[in-house]
Design goal:
Shape: globular
Number of helices: 8
Distance between the termini: 32 Å
Strand content: 5-15%
Largest sheet: 2 strands, antiparallel
Strand order of the largest sheet: 1-2
Keywords: Membrane, Transmembrane, Transmembrane helix
Length: 155
């Protein structure tokens, strides 16, 4: 078993450690791009569904932001998502793109404040509904965008 900076790695079979080192170096090179492209694709896809009025989360969005006109909210939010997604897909995103993307994702947590009955079973914040799980997973996406923001400085 070898120790790395953050965790222990058990050697797999008879693969020489040098081969694993090369593989990990390869992952360090491609993972940020794969992460950026996958987030960009999700934003374009989900945004387009909102723009064309076919989003399965339309009612959730309206319950979260009830003071914004239904006819305006979904297409406008979708358009913003498409623009952010395209910016992520096109290449090295500007700091502003990453910050706005992270802020947008953090905004999804308004569900827990504005429509908690949709997120929690029986008012218990430990018992998430499917909607609550759907929103809470955005915590991972926020962290992914923050990682891209942190890596942006290195390159």
């Amino acid at each position: 078993m070898s120790t790395t900076k953050d965790f222990e790695v058990e050697e797999v079979g008879s693969v020489p450690p040098q081969r694993w080192d090369r593989f990990e170096a390869f992952l360090r090179q491609v993972a940020p791009t794969a992460l950026r492209l996958s987030i960009g694709l999700l934003f374009v896809w989900f945004g387009l569904l909102k723009v064309v009025g076919r989003s399965p989360v339309a009612d959730l969005v309206h319950a979260t932001l009830p003071w914004v006109s239904r006819g305006f909210l979904l297409p406008a939010l979708g358009a913003v998502e498409v623009v952010l997604g395209i910016a992520l897909l096109l290449g090295k995103p500007h700091r502003t793109t990453l910050v706005v993307t992270a802020a947008h994702l953090v905004g999804t947590f308004l569900v827990f404040v504005q429509a908690p009955s949709l997120a929690w079973s029986d008012g218990n914040p430990l018992l998430l509904t499917a909607t609550g799980e759907f929103v809470l997973k955005n915590l991972v996406l926020v962290c992914a965008v923050l990682l891209l923001l942190g890596l942006r400085r290195r390159h």
